[in-house]
C-alpha cells in the first residue's frame, strides 16, 4: 500500500490535518500509539471553520455549554455563581461587591474584543515578520489595519495587557478576592507561573478565545470522537511510530514494536515537537536541535476524577479563593514541591466528574490525593488522580513561545528543516486549548 | 516680574539635563529644587562626619554619551572610575568572580563549568549586539501606534525596518529578551546556578519581580549597554560619588546661563486657559514662565502639581494606574576596617569591585517571595560596594564607607514601615552580610538604613521607586507614562514632563531629560 502522507497521532489536530489532506485527494494513513480512543472530552474552542469544513455537526459534535459556567465557594458560606447571561452574573457579583458588579459588563466586553483579535490570528499561520514577500507583508499590514479599526482603546489594551500579569489586570478592575481568584485561575491555567508573573494576562485571553463574552472557561466537546466518526480515513491504532529521515528528507515512519516501516514522502506529526524530532536529531542542524531542546514544556497539572455518588449541584466548581492562594500554590511548585493547598477545579462533563489539580511537581507524591481531598472536603478514596502530565500543550503558552516563536523561532510555519516533515500539534501555532486549529493551519500550509 | 522661557521643576539629573540643553539653546531657564542641594536621587552627602555617601543611586553606567559630549561634562568635573569586578560569595564557602580581565573571568568560569566558559563568549557577543540594536530606541521619541498621523506611521515603519534589519536570529533573541524571565533566558545558556543567580539579579533591580518572573530578561541587556560606548566600562563610580554627576551637569547648565535655585519646592503649576504659565512655590511665591517642565515622577507631575480638572479624566485614570511599588532599600555604613569574606579571605582587589549577595537562584527568588506577601526579605539580595576603595576621598584615612543596595524591601510593608521595622530591616541586612563575612558587624561605626518610605520622603520619588515608575513591559516606550502622552508633552499646553517616568526611564541615563528638551525646543518654547 502506498500512501501520500502519514499523520502521527489521532488527536484532534492529527485528525483535522488528515481530513483536510484527504479531502485534497491525498491517500493518508493516521498512526496512533493508543489502542483505544480517549473517552474524555476535548477542552477548548473548536473553530467554526473546522466544524463547517468537515461537517462536524453531522458527525455528532457535542459542545457543552454549562450554565452557570462556574461556581465558587464564598468564605462566609454560600457560593458565587456566574452565568452565561452577563446581566445575571452582574446581579450575582453585586451580592459580594457592588463596585465589581458595576464593572463586570465592560470588563467582559473589553476582554471579548481582545480575544477576538487572537481568534483572528489563530486561524491563519502566524505572521512571518522576517519575510520580504509582498503578499505576506500585505497580510501583516492587513492584520495591523484590522486591529486599528477596532479602535484606539483596543490597540492600547493589546500592548498594555498582553505582557501584564493577570493579577495586575484584575487588580485594575476588581476588588473581590473570590472573583479575582476564579478569573486568575484561567490566567495560570496549565502554566508554570503564578498570577503575578508577566504574560499570564495573555494566557487568560488565549483561553477566553472562542467563548462568548462573560464566560471565562474554555468549552468542552467531543470533537475528537466526532472527527473519528467521519469516514474516509485509514487509522491504525496501537502503533507508536517514529519518523524516518534520510539525507534531510522524511521517508516515512517506523512502527516501534514491530519495526515495520511505512513509507510516504510526507509525514505530518501532531506529537510533541521534541518527541517527533529527537529520534532524528542527527539529521538536524545543531542550532535547530538546541532550539527544540530549549522548548519549555513543564507540566504542572494532574487530572483525575471524583466519585460523588450523586450528580453535583454545579457544572464547574473552582477552588481558588484568591490571587494570593494561587500565588502560594505556585510558590510551592517553584520550589520543587506539590502545592500544599492546590488550585482544584471540578468539572461535570460527559457524564463524569473530572478534576484539574494545579500545581503538581514532577514525580509521584504519595499524599497528593489527600491534599486534594482536603481542599474539596471529601474522602481520599473518592479522588482518583492520573500522574502529572508532562505538558498538555507540548510547550507552555508564554509570550516567548507563541506566534512566530512557536514551536521554535523561525520555524513557525509547520515546516521543519527535514524536507517533507511537518508539525501540526499543539506545540505549533496557535497552541493548546484550540483543538484542530493547528491541524487545519498545517494542512493548509502543506497544500 | 521676570518671565523665564522655561522653569524646570526638580533638580535631579534629568531636570538638570533638560535645563542645560534649553540654556544651551539660549533660553532663559530656572531650575527649582526642593532640597538644599541638586541631584535628587543622585546625591553625595556627608551623613557621618568625614564619611561621604552616594546616598541613593551609587553606580553609573548608562549616562548617555551624547550628553557627556554635548554638555562637555568632563570639563565640569565628571570623572568616572571603573568598578572592576564582581564577586559572589556562595553558601558553601566557594565564590564566583568576574574580573576586569576577560581571560581571567573565563578561567574562573571554567573552574565552575567548562561548558559555561565556552558559552560565555557567545553569550557576550549576542548581548553586545542586542544592546547595540536596542540603543537607538533609547534615543528616539516613541511613536504612537494608535495615531494615524504621518509622522507616527513613518516612525513606526522605520522602527519595523530597524528590527527586521537585525536578521532572524537576533530578532528572535530580542523577542525572548523582552518576554522571558531572566532565569529561563539564562537557563538556555548556562548551567552554573551561581552564575545565573548573579546575572539574573541584575534583571530584578528596581522591579517588583523575581528572577523567575517573565519580563526580567530585558534588564540583562542594560549591563551591556554602558560598556558599548567605549566611554565607560560596564559600571563605574563617579569620583566624589554620584552627586558629582549631578554637580557636573548643574555646572554645565550654569555655564550655559541657567539659574538653579535650591530650597525652592514647587507647590503648584499655574494654568490659565489650558496653558501652563508658571509655578507657585511652597512659600507662596509665584514665578512666570512660557514653558514649565516637570522632572518629578508622573504621579507628582500630574496629580500633585495640577488640579484634576486641568486634565482629561481618562488620562488621570491612566496616571493613577501607573505602577510604582518601590522594592529596594539601601544601607550605608561607615566602617572602621574593611570586612574579610570567608570565600576570599583578607583585603584585596576584590574590595575594589562589587560583592553580589546572590548565591543561588533559589536564594534570590525566596527573597522575592518574602516581598510578594508584604515582608522585607529575611535574607535579601544585595549589591555591595566600597566607594572609599576607589575614591579615597569618600572616607577619613584608614576608614571606609560601604554601600549596600538591598532588595527586596516593599514600600507597602505589612503593617507599614516604622522606626522599629526600619532597624529590623537594617539588622537583616547586616546579619546576612555577617554570615558571609564573620566579624564584619564589629567593624561598623555608623549605620544609615533607607527604606522605600525614606526614599519617597527624602527624594520625593513616589512609593520610593528608584526608576520613577516600574520598568515593566506595559509601562515602557509609548506606554510610559500613559498611552498617547509618551512624547514629553502633556494635555496642558506649555507643560512638559522630563523625568525618568517618561521614555526611556530609569538609571542615571539622562535620556528622558535630553529628549524632553529637544521636544520643548521643537515646539518653540
CATH structural class of the largest domain in chain B: Alpha Beta
* Whole-angstrom Rg of chain B: 22 Å
Quaternary class = heterodimer
- The chain-level mean pLDDT of chain B equals 93
Strand order of the largest sheet of chain A: 8-2-1-12-18
- The number of E-state strands of chain A comes to 18
Structural class of chain A: alpha+beta
Main sheet makeup of chain A? 5 strands, parallel
Label the CATH architecture of the largest domain in chain B.
3-Layer(bba) Sandwich
Distance N to C terminus of chain A: 22 Å
Radius of gyration of chain A: 22 Å
Strand content of chain A: 15-25%
Describe the protein's architecture and organization.
The complex is a heterodimer of chains A (447) and B (525). With 447 residues, chain A is an alpha+beta fold. Chain A has three domains: 5-63 and 222-295 and 395-446, FAD/NAD(P)-binding domain, CATH 3.50.50.60; 86-217, no CATH class; 301-385, no CATH class. Helices cover 36% and strands 17% of the residues of chain A. Chain A contains 15 helices and 18 strands. Chain A has helices at 12-23, 48-54, 86-94, 98-122, 134-149, 152-161, 166-173, 177-188, 200-208, 223-229, 273-277, 286-293, 323-334, 368-376, 437-446, and strands spanning 5-8, 28-31, 42-43, 63-64, 70-73, 79-82, 220-221, 234-236, 241-246, 249-255, 261-263, 266-269, 301-306, 316-319, 343-349, 352-358, 383-385, 421-423. Chain A has a five-stranded parallel sheet, with helices on one face. A five-stranded antiparallel sheet of chain A has the order 14-15-16-13-17, sandwiched between helices. In chain A, strands 3-7-4 form a three-stranded antiparallel sheet, with no helix packed on it. The model of chain A has no long low-confidence stretch (mean pLDDT 94). With 525 residues, chain B is an alpha/beta fold. Chain B contains 17 helices and 18 strands. In chain B, strand 11 and strand 12 (286-294) form a beta hairpin. In chain B, helix 3 packs across helix 4 (114-138). Chain B starts with a strand and ends with a helix. Mean pLDDT of chain B is 93; it is low at 228-233.
